[in-house]
Write a structure and sequence with these properties.
transmembrane; BamA/TamA family outer membrane protein; five-stranded mixed sheet; membrane; cell outer membrane; signal; single chain
Length: 774
């Protein structure tokens, strides 16, 4: 890329690239008689239209003109210039090919413009928008080998809808149409608009599909426009069935039999193993309630299909249930392909059989993964995972996952005395595609609700300091209302942290009670709930993401036992004091795409954890932290806060893991693409953490009304190398506001000195991470 840029710059200087030369030199490459097309313009001559109506119509018409002229930048055409100066390449590769056809743009000539075709487009579009007497002409204006086409439209008056009539007849399909005619998109007084008419036909079709008319089509509806019955530019609309509508489209169909092939394979079909439709006499042995499951090898329990299928014998066909069934079958996670067919079984009774042809995924898989990873504490490293998955563990589409892993992490851009981490562990999860509970849970979502049971153990060794044994078990549910809303409730989530091999070196570095709580025995249990809303999967310029989490630990147990640590009534289970607290965390993200190559992203995090009853402090693993590659990047990981506490007062070589009970953080980032995989960003981060209770070893750490003056601010720039399978992020940040400086002197602008090497060492923070921070 660097060599290309160097040659690219030589081209600029060698050709004397200035605004003036770039503007006029493109035409010198044209052949005799050729003219550069600079675009088309539409002028509207009509005094009855408002300024906004003219502007809207003009913009729509010009958008429909073809071809588009060469792209411009500040009135210039640099892409065309690079096309012209680049030599014709001999091969479809190399620098000349890249400059001419990747950077450059072929000239659009006047000869490429079909002016008569564009004139007809202008008239047709205008008529479709209600300007029935529209007439357009065109003229070509040329100068200095450049040409522009001026189209003049005389649209006349716009016709308005005077009356909408839904023509009645005795057919069943017409009666159904009349039932939802009152919700029509066609309104009296509105302008005639062909796009609205098309949408109305689709609305009628969707309504009929919900009422059993499977074979109906929007093309079976005609909307007649009559402008002769009214004066003053009015038009009457008559909505009716076409006379040549197929008889099948007018019939209301219901479900006869529901037949499932859970082990369907196209190759077996070719060998004649399957027959669709099936002989009714051979179905009886596969009956299960109201469905037939063709599974001779009994690979699947029939009841999973009974729960997933929304069609039963005798049901009227309904498109919503049709799509819902397909989505639920896919969300079971055990089928690779899901195909559906409806075959008429009784034409007199208007019934058809519903066939579901399901191709299973590989039931078992074993995967070895080598990963590069980073975390919020600015630790980077590698991880090796061995994962085994069984997608039909008890023949009910239950997913069983087991994994063993080992990882080695080292800290980059964090504390100078940070120790390396070695982690190894195992975990298992059983995911059942239904809610296992003593109560009935009814979900009409396209996503199958799940019951999850997890068990895990992790051995964590922080070199030369301590070892932690972490045990975890959880039982809970995950369900989605739709693609945007997800709920997760862990009825019980148990964590047991047991330290071992705590060294003298650790106590030498961990000189405060807060730091020593890292190796305290912890027993945490209770329910947790999280709600997630996101529409980031939609192709919209503006999208959002929100996740709210509620964590309640030891609440019922603390209430029953009368635990109160402040009154010397600390209660223990198996000799370990259990944690009691309430924690709420909110993560809100906002994304806006300016163009295909530039966007804006922001995030707000707000959380509070309150200890009470059996706990005076929040467990270290459940506290909030600030700083690091995924937080406030101008401050090293876990060195910021709490509040205005000054970390410089801590003796050098002391363990510095600053945590808090309250967190506020705001991040904003502008992202842009430079070239293919190379992206850049400019960002600003702000926030801090605070304590609920006063801590004498960390003065200034308690949350107070002065919290706004204790907000840290940092800014920086970064590179993102997007290799599709991996995004490598490099950020360089500097502090702009330091909360532990004296009041009135916390903004750092006066102290910025890039020429001072010591200043650069203390204030320029480099972060290396994988993936985007948010």
């Amino acid at each position: 890329m660097k060599s290309r840029l160097n040659i690219y710059c030589k081209y600029l200087f060698a050709s004397g690239l200035t605004a003036a030369t770039l503007s006029c030199s493109n035409t010198k490459y044209l052949k005799q008689g050729q003219m550069l097309y600079t675009g088309g313009e539409v002028k509207i001559e009509n005094d009855s239209l408002s300024k906004n109506e003219k502007k809207e119509l003009k913009a729509a018409l010009e958008e429909n003109l073809v071809p588009k002229p060469n792209s411009t930048l500040l009135g210039l055409r640099p892409k065309l210039y690079f096309y012209n100066i680049a030599k014709e390449p001999k091969k479809d590769k190399g620098f000349n090919y890249w400059l001419k056809y990747k950077v450059g743009e072929k000239p659009v000539l006047l000869g490429d413009v079909d002016r008569e075709f564009n004139r007809k487009i202008i008239e047709n579009y205008s008529e479709n928008k209600g300007y029935f007497n529209a007439k357009a002409t065109y003229d070509t204006v040329s100068k200095n080998k450049k040409a522009q086409v001026i189209y003049t439209l005389r649209p006349g008056a716009r016709y308005l809808v005077s009356h909408v009539k839904f023509q009645q007849d005795s057919s069943l399909v017409n009666k159904e149409i009349q039932n939802f005619a009152h919700k029509t998109l066609l309104k009296s007084g509105q302008p005639f608009d062909l796009d609205v008419i098309k949408n109305e036909r689709e609305r009628i079709d969707n309504g009929l599909k919900e009422r059993g008319f499977y074979y109906f089509s929007p093309d079976n509806i005609i909307v007649q426009a009559d402008s002769t019955v009214s004066k003053n530019h009015k038009v009457e609309l008559n909505v009716k069935l076409k006379e040549d509508t197929p008889d099948l489209a007018t019939k209301q169909f219901s479900i006869d039999k529901v037949i499932v092939f859970p082990n369907y394979n196209i190759q077996d079909v070719k060998r004649g193993k399957y027959s669709v439709p099936m002989n009714p006499d051979s179905l009886s042995k596969y009956a299960y309630d109201d469905i037939y499951v063709i599974d001779p090898q009994h690979k699947f329990k029939p009841k999973i299909f009974d729960r997933a299928l929304y069609f039963k014998k005798g049901d009227l066909y309904n498109r919503s249930n049709h799509n819902l069934t397909l989505n639920r079958l896919i969300s079971l996670g055990v089928f690779k392909f899901v195909k559906n067919e409806f075959i008429v079984s009784d034409s007199l009774k208007h019934q058809f059989d519903a066939y579901y042809l399901l191709t299973p995924r590989q039931i078992q898989s074993l995967r070895l993964e080598a990963l590069g990873r980073t975390n919020s504490a600015s630790y980077a490293g590698s991880e090796l995972n061995l994962n085994w998955t069984h997608r039909n563990f008890f023949r009910g589409a239950e997913q069983f996952k087991a994994a063993v892993y080992g990882a080695f992490d080292f800290q980059m851009g964090g504390q100078e005395n940070a120790q390396n981490l070695f982690r190894a562990g195992t975990n298992v999860q059983l995911s059942i595609p239904r809610i296992v509970a003593p109560f009935h849970f009814n979900s009409s979502s396209a996503f199958v609700p799940r019951t999850n049971i997890t068990l895990g153990y992790e051995f964590q060794n922080r070199t030369q300091l301590y070892t932690l044994n972490n045990f975890n078990a959880a039982f809970g549910y995950v369900w989605k209302e739709n693609a945007r809303k997800e709920h997760e409730l862990k009825v019980i989530d148990i964590t047991l942290v047991s330290p071992a091999n705590v060294t003298d070196e650790f106590y030498k570095q961990a000189t405060t009670p807060a730091a020593q709580r890292v190796v305290a025995k912890q027993l945490i249990f209770g329910p947790t709930y999280s709600y997630t809303y996101t529409n980031t999967m939609l192709s919209k310029p503006t999208t959002i993401y929100y996740k709210g989490t509620l964590d309640l630990a030891g609440n019922i147990t603390g209430l029953v036992t009368g635990a109160n640590v402040k009154n010397d009534k600390e209660k223990k289970i198996f000799g370990i004091p259990f944690s009691q607290y309430a924690k709420i965390e909110n993560d809100f993200r906002f994304y806006h795409k300016f163009t295909e190559k530039s966007s804006f992203a922001s995030r707000f995090i707000g959380g509070i954890a309150y200890p009470y009853g059996n706990s005076e402090f929040i467990p270290f693993s459940k506290q909030f932290f600030a700083g690091g590659s995924n937080s406030i990047r101008a401050f090293r990981a876990r060195t910021l806060g709490p509040g205005s506490f000054d970390p410089r007062t801590i003796k050098k070589g002391t363990l510095l893991d600053q945590a808090g009970d309250i967190k506020l953080e705001l991040n904003a980032e502008y992202r842009a693409n430079l070239y293919k995989f190379l992206n850049v960003a400019a960002f600003v981060d702000a926030g801090n953490v605070w304590l609920i209770n006063e801590d004498s070893t960390r003065p200034g750490g308690k949350f107070s009304k002065e919290f706004l003056s204790e907000i840290a601010v940092g800014a920086g720039v970064g590179l993102r190398l997007d290799f599709s399978i991996l995004i490598l992020r490099l950020d360089l940040a500097m502090p702009l506001r330091v909360p532990y400086y004296e009041k009135g002197d916390r903004w750092a602008f006066d102290r910025i000195n890039f020429g001072d090497s010591q200043w650069r060492k203390d204030n320029l923070v480099f972060n290396l991470a994988i993936g985007y921070p948010f």
